[in-house]
Specification:
heterodimer, A: about 100 residues, mainly alpha, Helix Hairpins, 3 helices, B: about 625 residues, two-stranded antiparallel ribbon, 2 strands, about 70% helix
Chain lengths: ~100, ~625
């Protein structure tokens, strides 16, 4: 049996919402990162679903771009987090509000 | 032989290039000899071309030599081409001839000057520009030469730029010329818009297109240019100040060659001018009035070179009187004769100044005929020639101008004849103060004047300076034979006739009238000489004859200062203190202040809390989505 595309889209929407909510309410930088990953992967899932529904390979190709960009973002982001953690012994996002304008 | 014409401007130009590259290495005096040789070579070429032109029949004496196309723009093809005809060759001959002599003289005069090679570099460039000016076959190429002589004049007037007065005199000359050049440029535009060509021959074959008001406008605009270059009212004050340059420069540029460029230009466009009677009247009137005004100023000057400068202005006025009358041959005749005797007078004055160690004040000279016999003799010939004593060149030339003026504008003739008396008077005053009376230069030491003391005896000029004096004296004496009034078979300047053709005005006077006029001219000249000599040969101070208004040249400089310079400076001051501070600085500072204020209020948005940024993004996304959905639904 095969599920209709709407289920996948619904799942993606749920995952995206969890990620967005997590990003807004959590303070731990690592958790916030994971939330961003959740959102990215929800988007990927949408791409793939639409690719299957519309029979267009373009959506699946775009997922690779998303993966590459996500990997790069994680590399840079984790590097920054590690650097900050070494100096301040904590990884709370609100601690960095000294960077305000 | 005519094809060698391009060598005329090219030789001095080559001299300029060589002097620019190796002038310092050549040094004194070889740089001078090189400069002289190129100009003399140019004179030889001019003689060859002249012979070639004479060999042709009179109506065919016109030859155009294309060198290259200078500005090819669509329908406008401006060529760097030379027009060799009797008019341009007459100019070229006397320009190169007089310039060679003045170059030769400069070798002696400039001896020991630290910038000796530079002087000859400028002189060579000047001669090249002047030859381009007279030989060019279109208005634009003429303008190149016109500007070339202008800039050389500026460099040479302010040659000793260490002196403040020389530097500002150079600026003054340049500014006056620039004002006049505007007229030239507008005239070029006007000619091109009406006829579509700039060639002289092309313009003259489209005369019907530039008749009436347009022709008058073109002539008057070109006359503005000519009035600036040839120092006519109201643009003449620069010429007197230009005497700050070395004396050979005064002789070359401000007496013999450059200042005649305006007269030449008016002669060149004679077919256009002949159709514009109003313009002719303006030219003739301005010429006559300038001649008179400058002569009166010349009567009261103390500086030997300033007297000569104002006499140049006065003689140029005569030339414009002739041009306005339509007597172009007479104008060129006077121009050539003037080149001889005025160059002679300036070089003689230079010799006096040299001999007295840079003394230029007439009141500090006197009795020099004992010490500088050759200078006195040649200077005397120059004086008699300019005064119009028969049978010297000035008598015939000035007589020719005045006879034609009488036939066409009798009122202007009256001004001319009075001016002739004044000319004889002030030149005699100059000679009397310089060469007669007591040895006033011996008293120079007491009153703090730097220069010579009482023990310095004036010395005669060295041979290299004396030779040009002698040659020019001979030419000034016998120059009249170029265009004698009665001997029609021998008339070298008569070959100009076909150039002017119908444009030329020819007074048909009876022999009796001509003789009467000749007697009147000579009588007036003799009276002027007599009065001048009896008044000034013994006495030095005659305040009544030198009123301040004449010494200050009718306060023309003060008037220009009050009317133009002061309001101009006040306007500049206004711009600097009000417009600059309030408007421009205000705008710049205002932009800065606005940016700071905007930044100050916007910085509060950046709190540094990542969750707030994320909330902003989410909020923004929701709004965007809602907007897109509402559009999709409706």
């Amino acid at each position: 049996m095969s599920l209709s595309g709407a289920w996948y889209l619904g799942l993606a929407a749920v995952v995206f919402s969890i990620g967005a909510l997590g990003l807004l309410v959590r303070r731990n930088v690592l958790v916030m990162f994971m939330c961003v990953e959740l959102m990215l992967n929800a988007a990927n899932l949408t791409f793939v679903t639409f690719s299957r529904m519309l029979n267009d390979i373009g959506g699946q190709a775009l997922v690779f771009f998303t993966l590459v960009v996500a990997a790069a973002e994680v590399v840079v982001g984790l590097g920054i987090v590690v650097a900050i953690f070494r100096r301040r012994r904590s990884a709370t996002a609100d601690d960095f509000h000294i960077m305000r304008g | 032989m005519l094809h060698a014409a391009y060598l005329m401007p090219l030789l001095p130009l080559a001299g300029f290039v060589v002097l620019a590259a190796f002038g310092r290495r050549l040094g004194d005096p070889w740089a001078g000899w090189l400069g002289t040789a190129t100009v003399a070579g140019s004179f030889v070429v001019a003689c060859v071309v002249y012979a070639g032109l004479l060999a042709k029949a009179a109506p065919e004496r016109s030859f155009t030599q294309d060198m290259f196309t200078w500005i090819p723009v669509g329908g406008l093809q401006v060529k760097a081409a030379l027009l060799v005809d009797p008019l341009s060759m007459t100019m070229a001959l006397f320009v190169t001839g007089v310039s060679s002599l003045i170059h030769l003289y400069s070798i002696g005069y400039m001896k020991g000057d630290p910038d000796y090679p530079k002087f000859f570099l400028y002189l060579n460039l000047f001669v090249a520009s002047m030859l381009i000016l007279v030989l060019a076959d279109n208005l634009l190429f003429t303008f190149v030469g016109w500007e070339g002589v202008g800039v050389c004049s500026y460099w040479l007037v302010s040659f000793w730029f260490g002196r403040d007065s020389a530097a500002s005199a150079g600026k003054k000359a340049f500014l006056y010329n620039r004002i006049a050049d505007v007229g030239f440029l507008i005239a070029i535009f006007l000619v091109f818009s009406k006829t579509g060509t700039l060639n002289y021959t092309g313009i003259f074959s489209h005369l019907s297109l530039i008749g009436g008001g347009t022709g008058t406008a073109i002539c008057l605009l070109l006359f503005v240019a000519a009035a600036g270059k040839s120092a006519q009212l109201p643009l003449f004050p620069w010429l007197a100040d230009a005497m700050e340059g070395p004396t050979p420069v005064s002789a070359l540029i401000h007496a013999a060659t450059m200042v005649t460029a305006g007269v030449y230009l008016m002669c060149r466009i004679s077919p256009v001018l002949a159709g514009a009677h109003d313009a002719q009247l303006v030219v003739a009137s301005v010429g006559a009035v300038t001649a008179f005004v400058a002569a009166t100023i010349g009567c009261a000057q103390q500086d030997i070179k300033k007297v000569l400068a104002y006499s140049t202005v006065s003689q140029l006025g005569y030339m414009f009187l002739a041009v306005g009358t339509g007597a172009y041959e007479a104008a060129i005749f006077l121009m050539v004769a003037h080149a001889f005797f005025k160059a002679l007078l300036f070089l003689g004055a230079g010799s006096v100044i040299h001999g007295l160690h840079d003394e230029q004040d007439l009141k500090r000279m006197g009795n020099l005929r004992r010490y500088m016999k050759l200078t006195f003799f040649t200077f005397g010939i120059g004086t008699l020639a300019i005064a119009g004593i028969p049978p010297l060149s000035g008598f015939f030339a000035k007589g020719d101008v005045l006879d034609n003026a009488l036939a066409r504008y009798p009122a202007l003739w009256a001004i001319g004849i009075v001016t002739a008396a004044l000319t004889a008077y002030y030149m005699t005053r100059l000679v009397a103060l310089t060469f007669y009376g007591e040895d006033r230069w011996r008293q120079g030491a007491g009153d703090g004047v730097v220069g010579h003391g009482g023990d310095v005896t004036p010395h005669e000029a060295p041979p290299v300076m004396a030779f040009p004096l002698v040659v020019l004296a001979v030419l000034a004496f016998f120059g009249g034979v170029l265009h004698l009034p009665w001997h029609w078979s021998w008339d070298p300047l008569g070959w100009l006739g076909p150039v002017f053709g119908k444009a030329m005005f020819q007074a048909h006077q009876s022999v009796g009238t001509q003789w009467t006029l000749a007697v009147v001219d000579s009588a007036v000249a003799l009276v002027g000489v007599g009065v001048g000599f009896s008044l000034w040969s013994r006495q030095v101070q005659r305040a009544a004859l030198e009123p301040a208004v004449l010494q200050r040249a009718y306060y023309l400089d003060d008037i220009y200062d009050a009317v133009i310079a002061r309001p101009g400076r006040a306007f500049a001051q206004f711009c600097a203190s009000v417009i600059e501070v309030k408007v421009i600085d205000g705008a710049v500072n205002g932009v800065g202040r606005l940016t700071r204020a905007a930044g100050g209020s916007l910085r509060r948005v950046q709190t540094g809390y990542v969750r707030q940024y994320a909330l902003g993004i989410v909020f923004g996304t929701v709004v965007l989505l809602a907007w897109m959905i509402s559009r999709a639904v409706s």
